[in-house]
From TrEMBL:
Organism: Pontibacter populi
EC number in record: 3.1.3.12
Classification of source organism: Bacteria, Pseudomonadati, Bacteroidota, Cytophagia, Cytophagales
InterPro entries hit by this protein: B-phosphoglucomutase_hydrolase, HAD-like_sf, HAD-SF_hydro_IA, HAD-SF_hydro_IIB, HAD_sf, OTSB-like, PGP-like_dom2, Trehalose_PPase
Gene Ontology molecular function: trehalose-phosphatase activity
Full protein name: Trehalose 6-phosphate phosphatase
Pfam family, one: Trehalose_PPase
Reaction it catalyzes: alpha,alpha-trehalose 6-phosphate + H2O = alpha,alpha-trehalose + phosphate
Presence of the UniProt keyword Hydrolase in the record: yes
Cofactor: Mg(2+)
Family: Belongs to the trehalose phosphatase family.
Pathway this chain belongs to: Glycan biosynthesis; trehalose biosynthesis
Coiled coil: none
Amino acid sequence: MEDNLDTALRQKHIKALILDMDGVVTQTARLHAQAWKRMFDAYLQQRGKRENKTYYPLTIATDYRKYIDGIPRYDGVRNFLASRTIVLPEGEPTDEPGKETIAGLGNLKNIYFKELLTTIGAEAYPDTIAWLTQQRAKGMRTAIISASKNSKTILASAGVKGLFDAVVDGIVAVELGLKGKPAPDIFMEAARQLDVQPDEAAVFEDALAGVEAGRAGNFALIVGVDRTNDGNALKQHGADLVIRNFPTDKETMTNPSGTKLQKREASELPSILPHINKLLDSKTPAVFLDYDGCLTPIVKQPEMAVLSPEMREVLEHLSRVCTVAIVSGRDRRNVAQLVNLENLFYAGSHGFDISGPDGMHIEPGGAAEALPALDEADVILKEKLKDVEGSIVERKRYAIAVHFRNVADEQVAIVDQAVEDVLILFPQLKKGLGKKIYELKPNLNWHKGKAVLWLMDTLHLNRSDILPIYIGDDITDEDAFASLQGTGTGILVGAHDDKTAASYSLKDVDEVRIFLQKLTDVVNSRRDA
Ligand SMILES: O=P(O)(O)OC[C@H]1O[C@H](O[C@H]2O[C@H](CO)[C@@H](O)[C@H](O)[C@H]2O)[C@H](O)[C@@H](O)[C@@H]1O
């Protein structure tokens, strides 16, 4: 569907792109949702006590989306309160935060939001930024619109201010007397500032009110950006086209060392087996290994993935001749127990939790602050999924895997929704994908690739006589392949759903064992020579 976007832009002769900020360019929707929930839940509770009445708390999946998302702040307060049959005086924009007026409650929400912005910060969607950068390089003009009065701070916090020729936000709207969405005013002003007519511009929106606003303004193309599985609703409200991500040319993305990242189809990779001698040359390997799907076959239940005695023996021999680390999505203690070899390094929870021989233990990703969010998310997910047969919520120290391998196809949507609902509640967490699992991880720039580079550095392996080799089978291993591209070797086991940054392949777990055995033999034979 994403490929259609470039075609649609061409067909409609689009000269300018007007993008909504929250949910399309920056990931602040979750911060907003959390701030709204904090403000309204406390207010409703306090009011309920006073009136001896029960007011239901705000639900993010329904109330926030329906009454608040994408519209000016005070309108959001008024809309939501109306859904609970509460009418308050409008008040003044200068009302004290928390005063029982529309403005007072809106001002309190804004304080909570700014607190979250300072503590957690805004992040830009990498796919949007990569695509926008490409479009601007082709001469496309770009504007960003938002109902927020904090847009400048948010754009600066996400580091994307320079990507837009015009910014039309809540402050500009007040100055010019522009009506909020679903009125088209804010988009029309953006088009005016870009010096284009609506029939020359495309609008990108994730909110239903925003899609309606684009339609009301007769823009040439309305693109719904579906980050929350709401594609049908976006279409019903007027989107011409719905995309889940912006189409980026993955081959042109760069790896952490700044060199061009090469990605290929798994089927194009040569087997590493005939190339071991050439690969090693005169170097000593440092071997980083994923666990599930690499050292053990993928099985139905996580606890059934037991290491074979043969694989353990091979690993033990290898660890006598070079550094060996297991880099896994599993909990570190769990994977260390499964492998059960003392002289290996273990990076668990996708690299956030690392241990090694002689009592070494360190958590280099800085994820400790996400622990309360993980604890709460774990409880909520277990409650939400308790009746979904076959689902497993597997808590690791710094991640939660939500397994749906054994869930009936028609129930997988319930799992999807539960994960999305929880993500909205916890901006400290982000979603990752794996084989038939969703992973909730700390929302930090840390992953298996960073853990590998950290180990290389800490263990003084960044030397010309060392060849780092990473072997893995899953999407999460791509970060490690990318981190080593140019300096080491990535080996993909089997295939996953995307292109790969690995350079070689191995068919399955048996071939991994054969490769590790041969590697050990080559190093040993050199020593004997
Ligand atoms: O990074 P890894 O060591 O590969 O860990 C990734 C996840 O592996 C486990 O789940 C996967 O393997 C299970 C057992 O074969 C399988 O049932 C599941 O469908 C796979 O996704 C593990 O349970 C997760 O915690 C890891 O994150």
